[in-house]
Amino acid sequence: MGPTAMLTIAVALSLQASEDLGHLVRARLDLARPVALAKLYSRAPIEDRGRERAVLDDVRRRAPGFGLDPDRAVRFFAAQIEASKAAQRAWQAQWAREGAPFDPRPNLARDVRPKLDRLTPKMLEALRKGSAKDLARKAPKEPWLRPAWATATAPLTR
Fold first, then answer.
1. How far is 89 from 72, CA to CA, in rounded Å?
2. Per-domain residue ranges for the chain?
3. Residue 85's CB: how many other CB atoms inside 10 A?
4. What is the DSSP string of the chain?
5. What is the mean pLDDT of residues 64-77?
6. How far out from the chain centre does Cα 54 lie?
7. What percent of the chain has pLDDT over 70?
8. What is the pTM of this model?
């Protein structure tokens, strides 16, 4: 098998994985670290009720277009938001103990929120398909992030 065929297979597998809701939940949770870092450096609070309300209102508006019950979609995304805040608190607690990383300072509006916003329709589509495979395999290795993972995936395991 040549390099082109191998690349085609790798891309196909990546696209298939990216459609899995568990993968998308993990991708969203992974973005909690740069969010926490941006908020740490800007001294912004983790809780941002205006942004949370805007995300949930957007989900409620878009859910019917994906064939989803708006209330179910909002419950799912509310869990994602709570999980992200729990992960942000965990990251910031770790940095308080061990010191903040020397990573480049992300700009929340320019660097991170657009990535979160691109995940939303993918997650709505995956929620419609009900594709949440191998959740345990995608769980964070960091023990302090496991409670956030449990919060994020609770709507999928009920």
1. 26
2. 20-157
3. 20
4. --HHHHHHHHHHHHHHHHHSHHHHHHHHHHTHHHHHHHHHHHT--S--HHHHHHHHHHHHHHGGGGT--HHHHHHHHHHHHHHHHHHHHHHHHHHHHH---------IIIIIHHHHHHHHHHHHHHHHHT----HHHHS-SSGGGHHHHHHHHHHHH-
5. 95
6. 16
7. 84
8. 0.81
CATH 1.20.59.10 for domain 20-157, yes or no, is: yes
Look up tokens 């308080």; give the residue: 96
Q: What is the pLDDT of residue 97?
A: 93
Q: Cβ(138)–Cβ(17) under 8 Å? A: no
- Provide the residue count of the chain: 158
Task: In whole angstroms, give the CA distance from residue 80 to residue 75.
Answer: 9
